[in-house]
Design brief:
single chain, alpha/beta, Alkaline Phosphatase, subunit A, ten-stranded mixed beta sheet, two-stranded antiparallel sheet, binds magnesium ion, binds zinc ion
C-alpha cells in the first residue's frame, strides 16, 4: 500500500517536472527566462555604506535584502574618474559613456537612444519617476538629449517627443512657467496625456498616458512630508504602464539620497534610503505575483564618501564620517530579481545594463 502510494507520487512528480520543461521550451512567445517588463531603480548617490547604515537603523529587514542576485557597477564617465548624474544616467539609460554635465548625448553632442525610447519604438510602454524635478539629470537621461543638463526648459520639451507614456515627479515650472511662455501641458493633453498635479488626482486617473507634476520644482524630502509617496507613485506607474500588453520599461529614481550625501546629513540620507526601499518593496510585490518582471536596483554613483565608523546593531544606531561633500569614485551596488536577474551579478561597467535590457526584452534598436 505504502509503495503504491510512493509510486503514484513519483509518477505525479514526473508529470509535473516534464510539464515545467514543456513550458520553458515553449516555442510560442517569449521563453520563461526572459522578462516582459523591466523596472529599474536608481538610488542617486547610493553606496554600500548608505545601504548598511539604513539596514542597521531600520527595525525591520529592508526589501533590498530580498534580492537573490547582487553585483557592483563601475561609474566613471568619459571625461572624469568621478561621474555626475548626467553622465552616469546616460551610461545606464543609453549604454554610452559621455562627459559630466551631458544627458542622452555622446561627448561630441550626438544624441543616443535610451532604453525607454527603444522600448517605446518596439511597442512597449515606458515611464520615468523621480522625487526631484522630472527634468533633472537622472530621469532626463532616459527621455531627453542635451549637452547641458541644466537646460531644463529644453529638456521639458523633449518629454513631448513621443518617447514616454508616463512621468511622475516635480518640475511643473519647466512645463508651464517658461521663458517662451508656451504651456507644454496643453500640448501633452493634445497628445492624450492626463495631466495631474496632486496624488489624489493621479490615483483617480485611468489614462494609459499620464503626466503627473507633483511639485513646482522638486518634491519635498521624506522628512518634510513626502513619506511613502514614492511607493504610491511606483504602484500607480505599474498599474498605468501595465495596460500595455507588450510590456513596459519603468525607471524610478530616489533622487535625494544624493542631496543628503552632499549635505553630509545622515538622518536625511537614511530616511530617503528607507523610502526608496519601500518603493522597491512595492515593485517586488508586483514582480513576485507577475512572474514576468525583471527588477534591477543600482546607483549612478556614491555621494558623500560615507564611512561607517561605529554603530550598535541591536540598538539600531550607526556612527558615520563623510569624507566628501561631493560624489566619490567607488563602485556602487547592483541588485536584481526576476527573469534574467543572474546576468547582473559580478562586476560590470554602468554601460552594461543597456545591452542586457535590449537583449532580454528582445528589442530592435532601430
Ligand atoms: Mg538624480
Ligand atoms: Zn550629486
Amino acid at each position: 500500500m505504502e509503495s503504491k502510494r510512493l509510486r503514484l507520487l513519483f509518477i505525479m512528480l514526473v508529470i509535473i517536472v516534464s510539464g515545467c520543461t514543456n513550458v520553458s521550451n515553449s516555442e510560442s512567445g517569449k521563453s520563461a527566462d526572459k522578462p516582459k517588463n523591466i523596472i529599474l531603480f536608481i538610488g542617486d548617490g547610493m553606496g554600500v555604506p548608505h545601504l548598511q547604515a539604513s539596514m542597521t537603523v531600520s527595525s525591520q529587514p529592508l526589501n533590498l535584502e530580498r534580492f537573490p542576485y547582487s553585483g557592483l557597477s563601475k561609474t566613471h564617465s568619459a571625461d572624469s574618474y568621478i561621474t555626475d548624474s548626467g553622465a552616469a544616467g546616460t551610461a545606464i539609460a543609453c549604454g554610452v559613456k559621455t562627459n559630466n554635465g551631458m544627458i542622452g548625448v555622446r561627448p561630441d553632442g550626438t544624441p543616443v537612444s535610451s532604453i525607454t525610447e527603444i522600448a517605446k519604438r518596439n511597442g512597449l510602454a515606458a515611464g520615468v519617476i523621480s522625487t526631484s524635478a522630472i527634468t533633472h539629470a537622472t530621469p532626463a537621461s532616459f527621455v531627453a538629449h542635451n549637452s547641458g543638463r541644466g537646460n531644463y526648459e529644453e529638456i521639458a520639451a523633449d518629454f513631448l517627443n513621443g518617447t514616454i507614456d508616463l512621468f511622475i515627479g516635480g518640475g511643473e515650472n519647466h512645463f508651464r512657467k517658461r521663458k517662451d511662455s508656451v504651456d507644454l501641458t496643453l500640448k501633452l493633453k493634445e497628445q492624450g496625456f492626463d495631466v495631474v498635479y496632486t496624488m489624489e488626482e493621479m490615483k483617480k486617473s485611468e489614462s494609459a498616458k499620464l503626466a503627473s507634476l507633483l511639485a513646482k520644482d522638486h518634491m519635498p524630502s521624506v522628512t518634510d512630508g513626502r513619506q511613502g509617496l514614492l511607493a504610491d507613485m511606483t504602484r500607480k506607474a505599474i498599474e498605468t504602464l501595465g495596460k500595455n500588453k507588450n510590456g513596459f520599461v519603468l525607471m524610478i529614481e530616489g533622487s535625494m539620497i544624493d542631496w543628503a550625501g552632499h549635505e553630509n546629513n545622515l538622518e536625511y540620507l537614511i530616511a530617503e534610503m528607507i523610502d526608496l526601499d519601500q518603493a522597491v518593496g512595492a515593485a517586488l510585490d508586483f514582480a513576485s505575483a507577475d512572474g514576468n518582471t525583471l527588477i534591477v536596483v543600482t546607483a549612478d554613483h556614491e555621494t558623500g564618501g560615507l564611512v561607517l565608523s561605529g554603530g550598535d546593531k541591536s540598538g539600531h544606531k550607526v556612527e558615520a564620517i563623510f569624507a566628501s561633500t561631493d560624489h566619490s569614485a567607488v563602485m556602487v551596488p547592483v541588485f536584481s530579481y526576476g527573469p534574467g536577474a543572474e546576468r547582473f551579478s559580478g562586476i560590470h561597467d554602468n554601460t552594461f545594463f543597456f545591452g542586457e535590457f535590449i537583449e532580454l526584452l528582445g528589442l530592435k534598436k532601430d
